[in-house]
Amino acid sequence: MLERGEVANSWRRERWDSLRLLTPNWLSRLPGHEYAGSDPDDYMTMGEVVEFVERYATVTRAPVQTGTNVTSVRRTDDGYHVTTSRGEISCRTVVIASGACNQPSVPQFADAVPASVRQVTPFDYRGPGQLPDGGVLVVGASATGVQLAAELRRSGRPVTLSVGEHVRLPRLYRGRDVLWWMDASGVWDQRHDEVEDLTRARRLPSPQLVGTPERSTLDLNALTAMGVELVGRWAAVRDGCALFSGGLRNVFSLADLKMRRLLDTFDAWAAGRDADVDPPERFAPTQVPEKSRWQLDLRSGEIRTIIWATGYRPDYRWLHVPVIDPKGHLRHEGGTVDSPGLYALGLPVLRRRRSTFIHGIEDDAHEVITHLTQHLAAKS
Amino acid sequence: MTKGTLRDMTTIDNGVNVQALLDAREALKGAPEAAQFTWRASSKWQNGVHSTTRVQHFFGLGQEQSHKSEAVFTADHPEVFAAEDNGITPIEYLLVGLASCLTAGVASVAQNRGIQLRSVESTVEGHHDIRGILGADSDVRNGFNDIKVTFTIDADASQEDIEALVAQSQKRSAVFDALTNPTNVSVEVA
Ligand SMILES: Cc1cc2nc3c(=O)[nH]c(=O)nc-3n(C[C@H](O)[C@H](O)[C@H](O)COP(=O)(O)OP(=O)(O)OC[C@H]3O[C@@H](n4cnc5c(N)ncnc54)[C@H](O)[C@@H]3O)c2cc1C
Q: What domain of life is recorded for the organism (chain A) (predicted)?
């Protein structure tokens, strides 16, 4: 197992200070390694995640070789040739577990933002103290965007949030964590070959959730109540002005409708069971701002900082095997990559919907490694 | 996602060949060049603010294409603008485009989701402060301040499914996108 940094590197280096997991402790589990503390319904801080993963590495005696950067993987006649910062390796199979979120993804027009505005990605961001005073434009309203918008608003800064398509979820539904429902009702068990539009499912943005001890909902209505100004999806920069889509109302409708449909699924599932849950509930539609701006002059000084919460993408620059699609994603079928002996783990909806999350690895690893051992057996 | 059963799919008919659209989507995924279309219109000044615009030919799927027949659109201004009112105003053509695009979207999405439509009607209102175009107030924009579309739909579906149809039709609408997002426009003199 080659790791360029340390065990749990992404949780150590690529996250902001206040982040907690959005999956509750009982659900943030690894194969045979569950949360053992006293707050199963709470959410781990980054320090706790690092500790949890480290303990797992120790307990399982994972043969991790840290400080080893993989710089190239090439196909050979009977396997792969791997070049690392610490030497060369020849092997018959390779499992790519380098993560789905190696780089923040930032739109092209970021180049056209005036130099007077500071631009920050979630990889650079640690906390509000590091930003200049004054207005912040947070771009993107998925988990990262809503969490940073709330934190920056609480720091006293005026915050504008640019909202495109998003996934709205309440933190609690009928008295249980909404992710308990995802898990129990089987929504997360949907397999990759059953998903109607797999490409879409794989690039679905993260849900608007935050893990806090209060277990509070952080949807757009919560942000509006805090005084965050909502604008449409950022479409372009023209003459130093940010231009936002006028289609804000429809992205609200789409998210509200999808949430209602999901809650219907939960209710239908619960109806036939004596699950320990409260009565069904419905949430107020997303409030449409009376006036939403479609233009913001970035030279006026109103906005001092832009935070690009516009998602993450993998980095396969070291992978010299032609298995990357034009959008930069790995071509694979449930973790079996389109090159004999090459496998992937830890990608969104790799084999089922839960693959996107830490606990999804259990079944995925089992199935992918079964395939891998068969491949080895067939060749020997 | 609302999904019609197989039986639904074969018995409902909104007159949209969804299969052809789905096939095209698959085919064009691997052939982005063929997906490049150019729509064209040619306009001629008549008199005053009256003009005539003709539309027939376009480019797509790698070659020149043509509508079955030429369509001719007359634009003018109403008498309250001291014009002859030979036709609707140019900005009203945007409403025509938006309404017809969203309506086509509703029919296609309904077909795809196995929803039989009985009637689909909509009204579109564009709110326009004409002080902008008159140059009477430089803080007022030239175009619409906002547009409101109201659909009345009679179909074999719940209110929620109908709302989802209308939301999805906006999500996939060319004109909705063209109106809600900025577009580079270059105007030259030949
Ligand atoms: C901001 C954020 C919040 C998240 N919150 C949650 C949550 O609350 N709950 C949840 O279940 N999931 C969450 N996820 C998803 C979760 O991160 C993944 O499910 C999980 O981390 C995948 O683990 P991994 O080991 O496959 O990938 P990673 O954690 O990304 O680990 C990949 C490792 O590979 C190393 N690496 C990469 N390239 C090379 C190379 N060329 N050579 C050597 N080493 C390399 C990296 O250093 C890294 O340590 C979150 C993701 C993000 C980005």
A: Bacteria
| Tokens 């915050």 sit on residue | A159
Residue ranges covered by each domain of chain B: 38-81, 89-181
A16 C-beta closer than 6 A to ligand 1: no
d(CA A74, CA A82): 6
Q: Is A199 on the interface with B (CB under 8 A)?
A: no
Judge whether A286 is closer than 8 Å to chain B, CB to CB: no
What is the pTM (predicted TM-score) of this model?
A: 0.94
| Structure-block tokens of residue A234 | 């950022």
Instruction: Name the token pair of A376.
Output: 């080895």
> Each residue's pLDDT tens digit in chain A (380 positions)?
999 999 999 999 999 999 999 999 999 999 999 999 999 999 999 999 999 999 999 999 999 999 999 999 999 999 999 999 999 999 999 999 999 999 999 999 999 999 999 999 999 999 999 999 999 999 999 999 999 999 999 999 999 999 999 999 999 999 999 999 999 999 999 999 999 899 999 999 999 999 999 999 999 999 999 999 999 999 999 999 999 999 999 999 999 999 999 999 999 999 989 889 999 999 999 999 998 999 999 999 999 999 999 999 999 999 999 999 999 999 999 999 999 999 999 999 999 999 999 999 999 999 999 999 999 999 76
Residue A3: CB within 6 Å of ligand 1? yes
Fold of B89-181: GMP Synthetase; Chain A, domain 3 (3.30.300)
Q: Indicate whether residue A64 lines ligand 1 (CB < 6 A).
A: no
Dihedral of CA A269/A270/A273/A275: which sign? positive
A27 Cα nearest atom in ligand 1:
11
Separation CA B30–CA A284 (nearest Å): 42
Torsion of CA A309, A179, A362, A317, to 10 degrees: -10
Which residue from B160, B171, B181 is facing A250, i.e. has the nearest CB? B171
Q: Which of A48, A358, A363 to mutate to test the pocket of ligand 1 (most atoms within 8 A of CB)?
A: A358
ipTM over 0.90? The verdict is: no
Ligand 1 pocket check for A347: Cβ under 6 Å:
no
Measured between alpha carbons, how far is B160 from A27 in angstroms, rounded to an integer? 32
Sketch out chain A's domains with CATH numbers: 9-102+313-379 (3.50.50.60), 119-312 (no CATH)
| Amino acid making up residue A314 | P
The answer to whether the CB of A17 falls within 8 A of the CB of A33 is no
